[in-house]
Amino acid sequence: MERKADSKKKSLPGAWISYVHFWLYAVAAVSLPLVADAKPVRHHAAESEYHRHHHGPVLWPLEISGAQYAPLKWSDVSGWTDDDPLPAFKTFRASCKPIVAQTVPPIETKALGNSLLDPCKLARAANISDSAKAREFFEQQFIPLQISRLGEEAGFVTGYYEPVVDGSRVQTDVYTVPVYRRPSNLFVRGFSQASTSLPNKGQVFRKIGRRKLVPYYDRGEIEDGAIAGRGLEVVWLKSQTDLLFIQIQGSARIHLEDGSMVRINYEAHNGYPYTPVGRVLIDRNIVPKDQMSMQRIREYMDQNPDAAKELRRQNRSYVFFREVSLSKDDEAVGAQGVPLTAGRSIAVDKSLHVYGTPFFIEGKLPIESDAPNTPFHRLMVAQDTGSAIVGPARADLYFGAGAEAGRIAGRLKNPANFVMLLPKSLDPTARGKTVPLPEARPKAASASALEAEAKSDASNRGRQHRRDRSRQ
Predict the structure, then answer these.
(1) DSSP, res 326
(2) What is the per-residue burial (b if ≥16 Cβ within 10 Å, else e) of 107-128?
(3) Of 468, 163, 414, the residue nearest 293 (C-alpha)
(4) How are beta strands 261-269 and 345-347 bridged, if at all?
(5) Alpha-carbon distance 429 to 61, whole Å?
(6) What residues contact 335, with CB distance under 8 A and at least 6 apart?
């Protein structure tokens, strides 16, 4: 996925709460009306003070790494009443099926923990068929929490889709590019060869002899035939460009010559980090940054086949696929294991967020044209992930299958505002018992000094963030 240039950095706003380090709570409290003074406070003291000022539920302590967030009233959520929440309710209800079915709750490692279980039980039991009741459900069961990366004002969105391409079960003069399934000599530490699902990032190895493990083949080696002739071909395609875009998206619908269709989904990768080929074209001054899209990449590759081969190999990452039993009308299945909903499903950073979490996303996006002037205000549900989707307010919006969905998805790389819906069933007091308290503040430290320290920390993280993204 292509990513936008750095969002405008902004110092930590006075209304935000950050728990990238819990001690920032005491710093932020200098400018927040949440505690009476800047001294470190026990959770019950903070709760009491919050109730005194806001007469509402306590929204902390939460820990979302690298995030800043602020509670909102529903009336303050921009665009909330302009969206029809009924499709989002149906999407959320689909996400709830595996959540409710868990016989043993998973170990809580993320901010929301298992708190979606209660609203999910209600959603699965409810018979909601109109927009007003769907809106009432979300407003009664959740609290809106504006969220972004620490030091930044807005989040960032891209788009993805499911390609539909022609293919063949056998190699022909036309269909010469293989789509490979996972090789048997591909190893990921911590996973057995029988694992049905492997992570989409991290080290991957191949075995030489009985014990020696070396990095797996990269894209260039695989394109040159490193694993050819081993019976790993699922289908054959017309071009390496088609394969590259399928690998970026993670799934595809393959139309066969006899009129039938094969559905393929991500199975594994070769262990190399993803390098956006669009970024390479921008760095080489071949395509201006403001004109970059998946369509421009395809046009360049089609017009320059020799250069395209070299360009592809700048991205050493390679994805393997498995055939899945989906009909031509079924939507792709996301990482949560449920079918995605076009226009309502998003991919998020799975290290931070829980699948099934609703997010309200608002901004102006290039939906109807190349210009970012289409108002977008829509309740979405986290059902998928991706190796390039990193951060607390970063999402890939799923637009469905086919060429038109691809055109829309391909031009999205825009800032947007994120509001995470926090289940009211979350018990912040219980969650907070595992959060370490900050060390006592030196008496000589003034409020202004603490505030300056917080701003400095946010600025340093913003600079590091820009450096990291500039390398991608």
Answers:
(1) -
(2) eeebbbbbbbbebbeebeeeeb
(3) 414
(4) unpaired
(5) 7
(6) 347, 350, 355, 383, 384, 385
Phi, psi of 93 (to 5 degrees): -60, -35
pLDDT tens for 274-327 read 899 999 999 999 999 888 888 999 999 999 999 999 999 999 999 999 999 988
The single residue listed with the structure tokens 């979490």 is 357
pTM, to two decimals: 0.75
Alpha carbon distance 441, 26 (integer Å):
9
The answer to whether the peptide bond before residue 61 is cis (omega within 30 degrees of 0) is yes
Q: Are the beta carbons of 74 and 142 closer than 8 angstroms?
A: no
* CA–CA separation, 345 and 405 (whole Å): 14
Which tokens hold the place of 73?
């009233």
3-state secondary structure of 253: strand
What tens digit of pLDDT does each residue of 261-272 get?
Answer: 999 999 999 999
From 147, 62, 43, 12, select the one nearest 453 (Cα to Cα): 12
Q: How many residues does the chain have?
A: 472
Q: Check: CB of residue 124 under 8 Å from CB of residue 92.
A: no
Average pLDDT over residues 352-370: 95
Alpha carbons 66 and 19: distance in angstroms, whole number: 8
What three-state secondary structure class fits 156? Answer: strand
For residues 318 and 272, is the Cβ–Cβ distance under 8 A?
A: yes
| Two tokens, residue 330 | 């079924």
